[in-house]
């Protein structure tokens, strides 16, 4: 966070209030975190997703410096984070979260439960385009899914408003006339990452005095003298009565918000009316916008006014409850308005905001104001002043023509042109090149054990790569060298599904693809389920003889590639896929974090390792709990084959790939885990990747083994080879772990060493006995 500066506000033209304020120069995400630390919430349950991830990162860094007492809980996915928050709210404390886009949709199932049981909290929704296709930039398609979940929604157009709305939001949520969870909505990357000058309340005690003591007169789960049932089953007529009470609370939020903003204005000098109206007093044409694009339109209003055109801008500061009456009043003398929607309500002949503005006019008897609707700015497409001019011109044209020529359309798009369809740049790989015959896997008829024969690795260099060069991976990235080594052991054609992650993002920037064979993408949480559907369709069509009839190949190996924490949020479907035993391979590249969203901790991050959400400082020293042993978890599902591998031991990895293919094609699901280097986030030399993963193996942190039909076998034992090294000899190579070697962190290092030794000895015991 930037250093606070106290200045003469009158000279600077800043707002005056009853409390001392300071100036910081920060982004929207930083201001959400800043407000949260001043409120000092009890719990934040979170999961990383761009562009909201930074909120948790900033809070984690502040926690490491001892600036707040918030318990930050890294969930296994957004659904889990929503559960953490609901449970914490049911426990009677103050709760905070931040998310975006598909993460918001993943938790969506749970959000009406929280509002329906009247459990307050604050959620920052950092608006981002909802997939698919995958896009991480800002529009309002996620916000529009929030309109019907029963949460009041506050709108924040710049970092100053993000700060102010976050402080007011918890007061609104806890008000006895409301008692609902509240969303603060602001634009991803436009507001979340762009820095602005922001006034903040200097004394945290003044913030807490403003929001008040946490209410204690409502039932919660931790009062043993007053046990309650939370979320009871409810039939009619109780359900409709419950909904009616919730509806009344939502409409109460409007008047409570008005009261809170007046109190806040006395405190800070900044007031937020229900509608942010800019030069609407005598406006004849207007534009209705949400959040950051509003400020662009205001500049254009000044230019139009200089030309004698009476233009104005409307933007709500609260979106739920929808300020219907105030909008109708603001538009009573307006001849035409263009409503901008940064998201579509597909098939409804307009975006959500246009539909609601039209409803407001209809409700209050205004049949004269003409409404034009344009969907704009999807996927983060910029909205410039000349775009705003065109929005105003649409309204001006409607006034002059006395009709709206095109009530609804997209703006800034290019209609599809078949002549410009992407053309194939790489010819399909030849089957004879992929099936070399140099690798053989033969089952022993008596024991059932597989005998694998591979040639010298140089003989496999002629085998074409499955992923072409030209992708956007960082220098030294181990994903593709590790995957390609694995793929050297796979003969024939593949269909690959990639989870969201670095491997997916850097290879598929439309309209280009680095994948030479069929590639599918689906979201983190259900990749395994998706590929299992493809697998079963393949076998069913093959059974029906459809491939023969169409002259198509019926020889595929199905591989799901996961990594960047994908086996946290995707663990459930992966286990389900294993239990159903679909004929496919899941291979995890383990880079020990969520690298694609900025190096947050994942459950595969080892104890003590520094990430952007396990910061190092006087009050914490990296990740506080041990890493998840995914291979052992998958072995417990009793699938036929589980393995670990490393490109530092290529012969071992190629052999295991060949085994994996045989089991996947003949028996059922296979799981493999490959340790790969990430120089950027490991803070290591990009030329030392293989050396570092080699050290991880020889320190016994990442043992090389396989579990074949339930029997564990070490495929490399550094003790037998006289190559075992100290754990510190691995850790010293990476900037993310050097703090662990300092004297003040000696106990943490010893705890890490004990756990590595325990897991290693357990594996050796399993190697010695087939019954373990």
From TrEMBL:
Pfam family, one: PFOR_II
GO terms classed as biological process: response to oxidative stress
Domain (Thiamine pyrophosphate enzyme TPP-binding): residue spans on this chain: 557-660
Key words of the record: 4Fe-4S, Electron transport, Iron, Iron-sulfur, Metal-binding, Oxidoreductase, Pyruvate, Transport
Domain of life, per lineage: Bacteria
Residues in the signal sequence: none
Cross-referenced SUPFAM superfamilies: Thiamin diphosphate-binding fold (THDP-binding), TK C-terminal domain-like
Domain Pyruvate flavodoxin/ferredoxin oxidoreductase pyrimidine binding stretches: 35-260
GO molecular function ontology, one term from the record: thiamine pyrophosphate binding
Start and end residues of each Pyruvate:ferredoxin oxidoreductase core domain: 283-387
PANTHER family attached to this UniProt entry: PYRUVATE-FLAVODOXIN OXIDOREDUCTASE-RELATED
Similarity comment: Belongs to the pyruvate:ferredoxin/flavodoxin oxidoreductase family.
Name of the protein this chain belongs to: Pyruvate synthase
Species of origin: Niallia endozanthoxylica
Lineage: Bacteria, Bacillati, Bacillota, Bacilli, Bacillales
């Amino acid at each position: 966070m930037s250093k606070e500066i106290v200045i003469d506000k009158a000279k600077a033209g800043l707002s005056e209030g009853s409390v001392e304020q300071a100036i910081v120069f920060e982004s929207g995400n930083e201001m959400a975190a800043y407000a949260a630390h001043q409120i000092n919430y009890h719990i934040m349950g979170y999961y990383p997703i761009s562009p909201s991830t930074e909120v948790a990162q900033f809070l984690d860094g502040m926690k490491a410096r001892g600036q707040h007492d918030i318990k930050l809980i890294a969930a296994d996915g957004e659904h889990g984070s929503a559960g953490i928050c609901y449970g914490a709210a049911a426990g009677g404390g103050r709760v905070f979260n931040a998310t975006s886009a598909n993460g918001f949709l993943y938790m969506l199932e749970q959000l009406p439960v929280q509002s329906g049981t009247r459990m307050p909290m604050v959620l920052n929704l950092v608006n981002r385009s909802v997939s698919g296709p995958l896009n991480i930039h800002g529009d309002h398609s996620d916000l529009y899914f929030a309109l019907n979940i029963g949460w009041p929604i506050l709108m924040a157009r710049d970092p100053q408003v993000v700060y102010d709305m976050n402080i007011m939001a918890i007061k609104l949520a806890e008000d006895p006339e409301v008692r609902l969870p509240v969303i603060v909505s602001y634009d991803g990357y436009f507001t979340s990452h762009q820095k602005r000058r922001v006034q903040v309340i200097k004394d945290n005690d003044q913030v807490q005095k403003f929001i008040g003591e946490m209410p204690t007169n409502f039932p919660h789960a931790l009062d043993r003298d007053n046990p309650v049932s939370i979320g009871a089953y409810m039939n009619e007529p109780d359900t409709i009565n419950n909904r009616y009470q919730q509806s009344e609370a939502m409409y109460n939020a409007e008047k409570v918000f008005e009261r809170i903003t007046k109190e806040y204005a006395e405190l800070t000098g900044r007031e937020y009316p229900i509608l942010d109206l800019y030069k609407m007093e005598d406006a004849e044409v207007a534009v209705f916008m949400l959040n950051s694009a509003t400020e662009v339109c205001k500049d254009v209003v000044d230019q139009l006014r200089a030309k004698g055109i009476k233009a104005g801008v409307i933007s709500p500061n609260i979106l739920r409850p929808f300020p219907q009456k105030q909008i109708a009043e603001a538009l009573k003398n307006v001849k035409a308005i263009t409503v901008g929607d940064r998201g579509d309500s597909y098939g409804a002949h307009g975006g959500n905001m246009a539909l609601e503005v039209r409803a407001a006019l209809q409700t209050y008897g205004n049949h004269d104001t003409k409404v034009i609707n344009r969907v704009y700015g999807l996927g983060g497409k910029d909205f410039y002043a000349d775009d705003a001019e065109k929005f105003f011109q649409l309204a001006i044209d409607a006034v002059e023509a006395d009709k709206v020529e095109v009530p609804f359309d997209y703006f800034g798009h290019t209609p599809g042109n078949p002549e410009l369809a992407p053309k194939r740049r790489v010819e399909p790989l030849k089957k004879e090149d992929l099936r070399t015959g140099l690798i053989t896997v033969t089952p022993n008829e008596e024991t059932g054990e597989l005998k694998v024969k591979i040639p010298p690795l140089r003989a496999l260099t002629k085998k074409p790569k499955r992923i072409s060069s030209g992708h956007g991976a960082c220098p030294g990235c181990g994903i593709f060298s590790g995957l390609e080594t694995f793929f050297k052991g796979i003969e024939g054609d593949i269909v690959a599904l990639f989870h969201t992650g670095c491997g997916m993002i850097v290879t598929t920037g439309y309209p280009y693809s680095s994948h030479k064979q069929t590639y599918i993408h689906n979201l983190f949480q259900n990749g395994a389920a998706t590929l299992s559907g493809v697998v079963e369709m393949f076998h069913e069509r093959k059974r029906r003889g459809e491939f023969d009839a169409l002259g198509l190949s019926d020889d595929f190996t199905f591989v799901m590639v996961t990594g960047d924490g994908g086996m946290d949020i995707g663990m459930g479907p992966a286990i389900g896929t294993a239990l159903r035993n679909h004929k496919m391979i899941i291979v995890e590249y383990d880079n020990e974090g969520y690298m694609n969203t900025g190096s947050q901790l994942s459950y595969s991050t080892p104890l003590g390792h520094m990430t952007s959400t396990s910061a190092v400082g006087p009050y914490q020293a990296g990740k506080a709990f041990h890493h998840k042993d995914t291979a052992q978890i998958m072995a417990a599902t009793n699938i036929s084959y589980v393995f670990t591998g490393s490109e530092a031991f290529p012969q071992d990895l190629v052999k295991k790939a060949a085994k994996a293919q045989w089991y996947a094609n003949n028996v059922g699901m296979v799981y493999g885990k490959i340790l790969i280097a990430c120089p950027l986030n490991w803070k290591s030399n990009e030329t030392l990747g293989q050396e570092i993963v080699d050290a991880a193996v020889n320190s016994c942190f990442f043992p090389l083994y396989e579990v074949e039909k339930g029997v564990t076998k070490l495929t490399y034992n550094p003790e037998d080879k006289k190559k075992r090294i100290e754990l510190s000899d691995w850790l010293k190579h990476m900037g993310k772990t050097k703090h662990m070697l300092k004297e003040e962190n000696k106990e943490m290092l010893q705890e890490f060493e004990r756990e590595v030794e325990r897991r290693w000895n357990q594996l050796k015991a399993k190697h010695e006995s087939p019954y373990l």
